[in-house]
């Protein structure tokens, strides 16, 4: 059987990490695309030379030509500008919208059958715009945010309760940003609801609220520390989990930015929800029951996403 092909649009910090992870896992041959000349080629060469040491068989190439992504099974998009300290994800909108247009057109022309995972921020708006510009079916274009946000939530909870991260099943809904909705009622420590675990461990409700708040601002905390860019290890590994679910038809239930039309009272919007990823792409969106508070928080979050979509439509007449 021929190897799968994975195209990475954007060969920066996340793109390079994605290439390394995908190669190590022998997910397929990898094409790194970037507008910067020489950089994707240089990174590809460096990464290819990991092969003999790590023992993986994967062809890794770098390119500045969209024609080289032809026939890709999975495309992961990180092209754009990352957040700088003090910059909100929304400040990025204008710059990255133009990038999504170029990338969407490239995918449409050369890899229209791919499963496309968008990571570029502001995520919920960029994945929507990328879908619009590429014209691919909604179930084949998805955004990576929830896997990362839940991983952040799970990390902080595991630290607080002093338990293994493997046993924390964290649940996050809504847009990727300060309005995301960590759903504690669906978050468990191996089946034990967070509220119960907090009582057992003597952790106060306000401490859980602090953890929720830290999760919401998790990206910004890292930006503030790095000073020259944003997080890349955890975003990359989160997108790889989604790509594996598609390539392996795993039917995993993962929190992702999926197109929701009807469920959660939404009318054609990309937002973070639990969804089933298998060979059909996004095969289903799972609608969970929310408390009144959670529903209100989700509404705040989706309103913020809708505002961004309006801003995108004002910036580019093709989206109106
Ligand atoms: N086409 C292709 N690549 C592009 C384009 C474009 N039109 N515009 C910019 N790029 C490339 C840059 O040359 C750079 O190599 O995108 C890459 C982005 O890499 P980094 O700046 O290292 O950013 P990274 O940390 O990888 O984050 C990428 O993911 O989490 C989000 O907010 C983050 O939007 C940002 C994205």
From TrEMBL:
It catalyses: (S)-malate + NAD(+) = oxaloacetate + NADH + H(+). SUPFAM superfamilies: LDH C-terminal domain-like, NAD(P)-binding Rossmann-fold domains. One of its GO terms (biological process) is tricarboxylic acid cycle. Its EC number is 1.1.1.37. NAD(+) binds at residues 10-15, 34, 96, 119-121. Pfam families: Ldh_1_C, Ldh_1_N. Substrate binds at residues 83, 89, 121, 152. Keywords: NAD, Oxidoreductase, Tricarboxylic acid cycle. Residues 148-309 form the Lactate/malate dehydrogenase C-terminal domain. InterPro entries: L-lactate/malate_DH (IPR001557), Lactate/malate_DH_C (IPR022383), Lactate/malate_DH_N (IPR001236), Lactate_DH/Glyco_Ohase_4_C (IPR015955), Malate_DH_type3 (IPR011275), NAD(P)-bd_dom_sf (IPR036291). Residues 5-143 form the Lactate/malate dehydrogenase N-terminal domain. The active site is at 176 (proton acceptor). Catalyzes the reversible oxidation of malate to oxaloacetate. This is Malate dehydrogenase.
């Amino acid at each position: 059987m021929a190897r799968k092909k994975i195209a990475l649009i954007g060969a920066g910090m996340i793109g390079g990490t994605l290439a390394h992870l995908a190669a190590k896992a022998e997910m397929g041959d990898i094409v790194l695309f970037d507008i910067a000349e020489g950089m994707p080629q240089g990174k590809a060469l460096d990464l290819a030379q990991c092969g003999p040491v790590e023992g993986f068989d994967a062809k890794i190439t770098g390119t500045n030509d969209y024609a080289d992504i032809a026939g890709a099974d999975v495309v992961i998009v990180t092209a754009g500008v990352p957040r700088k300290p003090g910059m909100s994800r929304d400040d990025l909108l204008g710059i990255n919208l133009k990038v999504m247009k170029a990338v969407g057109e490239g995918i449409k022309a050369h890899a229209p059958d791919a499963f496309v995972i968008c990571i570029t921020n502001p995520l919920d708006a960029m994945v929507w715009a990328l879908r619009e510009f590429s014209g691919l079916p909604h179930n084949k274009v998805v955004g990576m945010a929830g896997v990362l946000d839940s991983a952040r939530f799970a990390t902080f909870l595991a630290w607080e309760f002093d338990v293994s991260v493997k046993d924390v099943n964290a649940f996050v809904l809504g847009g990727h940003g300060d309005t995301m909705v960590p759903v504690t009622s669906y978050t468990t420590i191996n089946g034990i609801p967070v509220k119960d675990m907090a009582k057992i461990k003597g952790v106060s409700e306000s401490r859980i609220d602090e953890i929720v708040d830290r999760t919401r601002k998790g990206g910004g905390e890292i930006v503030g520390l790095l000073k020259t860019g944003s997080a890349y290890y955890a975003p990359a590994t989160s997108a790889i989990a989604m790509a594996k679910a598609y390539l392996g038809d795993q039917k995993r239930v993962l929190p992702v930015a999926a197109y929701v039309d009807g469920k959660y009272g939404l009318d054609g919007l990309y937002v973070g929800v639990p969804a089933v990823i298998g060979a059909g792409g996004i095969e289903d969106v799972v609608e969970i029951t929310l408390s009144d508070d959670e529903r209100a928080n989700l509404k705040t979050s989706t309103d913020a996403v809708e505002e961004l979509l309006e801003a995108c439509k004002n910036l580019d007449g093709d989206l109106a």
